[in-house]
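One example copied in:
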Amino acid sequence: DTLAWPTVHAPSINLRLQPSPVWIRFPVHNRTATTTDWQLLIPWIMLSRVEVHVLRSNGQWDAPLLSGYEVPPSQRAEDYRLYLFPLQFEPDEHATVFIRAKTRTIFFLPLLMMQEEAFEHFDEQTNISYGVGFGILLAMMLYNLSLYLFIRERAYLLYSIYVASIILYELALT
């Protein structure tokens, strides 16, 4: 007997604390007349191990693609700050993508699948957003640090240290 796959109708999967690995699957159909390159992006770095398996319509499995913070960088599918998996589909191909994910924290799995050009645009926009956000935080830190230097009010120094810690934390995550 087999277990049914539950259907999720949400933009991302949030299973809270999950002690064992979770399997997710979804169908893919390349409706174009050309071979297309896709990028499967998981923008959540708290996954210890992610495996992507593709079952082709002819019954063949692709070699698994790996990523996660427990996977050595040399074994990861792509050298990227998030978990990125390149996928390619032939014209009019039907395939099923299986994802096995494991984490030691809250299980949250946002999935983005986009063609190469869309991914490059997404990556560029994300980098600009990071630059703006970090620039604002840096300006806040420097402004409060300069206030501390001129006024010698300890609260400005503590706030500057606090903002610096936020910057370091966010840099570590991104």
Q: What stands out?
A: The chain has a mean pLDDT of 91. Helices lie at 116-151, 154-173.
